[in-house]
Design goal:
The chain has 426 residues and is of the alpha/beta class. The strands form 3 sheets. Strands 5, 6, 7, 8, 9, 10, 13 and 14 form an 8-stranded mixed β-sheet that branches. The chain has a 4-stranded antiparallel β-sheet with strand order 2-3-1-4, with helices on one face. The longest helix is centred in the middle third of the chain and has 23 residues.
């Protein structure tokens, strides 16, 4: 079988069997098979394309199966989905090639199913017209409970726009390290239309292979996360705490905004993640970032009221970054229900670290109000020392007088991201 398709199939199987992240599973396969950049890009397109459209692909496949799809051998279903994605969504891959490769892959592990795979995929490829999906949940391959939540939040049209954005191809966003460069020209890069010092990268492959990345001239970060740091507005000389810091992007953005003058303590619950922050800071030449392993819910009395700025990027459901991590849509309501309690505990602990007159910024990469404005409201009800504060961001966002904002992929072309600026007034 071709290496890109083999990598995609193995990654999908690893995700299905072990629950490991699809990105990690794919990275492992790309390294194991030593794929060239072009083949690695195809493997990624197949892997994430299947995960983005799994329910819709199953709906189409079911039209040409004589048995219920859930009775198929899981590996065979993975092969069918991968081939169906190529047939339905990818114009540059001939349907015949997708079918033939799928049959070869099936014979390698499930020879008795090869005839079924061949017949089903040929019928799919030869179909004049595919049936209309019966619901938004099927059309955009999101669970019904999540579609209903989106409709409740945004209305039918807004929800469909968000669902479509979640399934759209997303470029890489790179922020320039203005401590090292104020102008950066890269092949395959163009300036962001309204966010200063931000580049949109298309077709560059793994950014870690870029010379500009290795030289510390840029780091990868979505515009939404950069905007959150801009709202916090740390000044040179600031003492800043980032208690949920991994993988380090907000600490990097803050250090650059501070001109590498001041002090940043980047902590995280998992000590193994701190080395990545340290490596990134060294690459970028950011000497003011120190790291520490710490549970953000546990308050250290030694730092009571000692930080000018605290940025809390709380652990959350991640429902705002489905467009980058499609497997997040597989989460259940039961996995999410306790998160606001954890988020509030972290915010309350972080607030005790803020100096009088200091800034507390709360952020998440989810779109659910119970994780966002609901947590802020609960916090303010018990913390009269803090008040919401307006902030101003680049147009078209401009001034946010209420002190909190929800960014959406289909509106702002960013991750789904909430952040709120609070000032300690007592």
């Amino acid at each position: 079988m071709s290496s890109p398709r083999k990598a995609a199939l193995n990654a999908l199987m690893a995700y299905r069997k072990s629950g490991t992240s699809a990105e990690a599973a794919l990275d492992k396969q790309i390294k194991n098979l030593n794929l060239e950049p072009r083949d690695a890009a195809l493997a990624a397109k197949l892997t994430f394309g299947v995960l983005q459209n799994r329910t819709l692909l199953d709906f189409y496949l079911a039209q040409f199966l004589n048995t219920p799809i859930e009775k198929l051998e899981p590996r065979v279903l993975d092969i069918l989905r991968t081939a169906a994605y190529q047939i339905v969504f990818l114009d540059r891959i001939p349907a015949r090639a997708a079918v033939d490769e799928a049959v070869r892959m099936t014979k390698a592990g499930s020879p008795k199913a090869a005839g079924l795979v061949n017949a089903v995929l040929r019928r799919l490829a030869e179909a004049d017209k595919l049936p209309e999906p019966p619901s938004l949940a099927v059309k955009y391959s999101h669970p019904m409970w999540l579609v209903k939540r989106f409709v409740d939040l945004l209305g039918q049209d807004g929800a469909e726009a968000l669902l479509a954005a979640n399934n759209a191809e997303v470029p890489l966003y790179a922020q320039m390290n203005t401590l090292k460069t104020d102008a950066l020209t890269l092949e395959g890069a163009e300036p962001h239309p309204w966010l200063p010092d931000c580049l949109i990268l298309q077709g560059v492959g793994n950014p870690a292979n870029l010379q500009a990345f290795r030289d510390g001239l840029l780091y990868i970060q979505d515009p939404a996360a950069k905007l959150a740091v801009m709202a916090a507005d740390p000044k040179p000389g600031t003492r800043l705490l980032d208690p949920c810091a991994a993988p380090g992007g907000k600490s990097f953005a803050a250090a650059i905004q501070m001109g590498n003058k001041g002090e940043i303590l980047a902590s995280d619950l998992q000590e193994k993640k701190l080395s990545k922050i340290e490596e990134g800071a060294e690459r970028l030449g950011l000497t003011i970032i120190k790291t520490s392993a710490q549970d953000a819910r546990e308050f250290d009395p030694a730092v009571l009221g000692t930080f000018d700025t605290v940025i809390v990027d709380a652990p959350c459901s991640g429902l705002g970054i489905i467009r980058k991590k499609p497997e997040i849509r597989d989460k259940t309501p039961e996995e999410i229900v306790r998160l606001p309690e954890i988020q509030l505990a972290i915010l309350q602990s972080a607030a005790r670290c803020v100096a009088p007159g200091g800034t507390l910024l709360y952020a998440t990469c989810t779109v659910l109000p119970e994780e966002n404005s609901g947590v802020v409201s609960a916090f303010l009800a018990d913390n009269q020392a803090f008040a919401l504060e307006a902030f101003t961001l680049p147009d078209p966002i401009g001034t946010v007088p209420e002190g909190q904002i929800m960014l959406y992929p289909h509106i702002h072309d960013t991750d789904g991201f909430f952040f709120c600026k609070l000032r300690r007034v007592k």
